[in-house]
Amino acid sequence: MAYVQQTSSFESGFTDRLATSVKVFFERVGTHIETYRIYCQTLTELEAMSDRELADLNLSRYDIHRVACEAACAK
User: Which residues form the YjiS-like domain (predicted)?
Assistant: First the structure.
């Protein structure tokens, strides 16, 4: 005996929208993780610099977080 399963267009549409939503969610999570990784890398590199090296870049220790944020958001 053959078994036939029919899905309504509502169920099919719902499944498609759900799959799209999940895909978009994980793409956004991936984007945020990449942005945070760039922020942390930039922050680590700037914090490792001496005050003299930062001054050569026309930065102070106060500017480090702002510059790291700008670097991460500019990608």
Answer: 36-65
Contact 69, 39 (CB under 8 A): yes
| Cβ-Cβ contacts under 8 Å for 26 (sequence gap 6 or more) | none
Question: Distances from the Cα of 67 to the Cαs of 20, 31, 44, 50, 64, in angstroms?
Answer: 35, 19, 12, 16, 5
- Contacts for 25-30: CB closer than 8 Å, 24+ residues apart: none
For residue range 49-65, what is the model confidence (pLDDT) as tens digits?
A: 999 999 999 999 999 99
Interaxial angle between packed helices 9-48 and 64-73, expressed in degrees from 0 to 180 and rounded to the nearest 10:
140
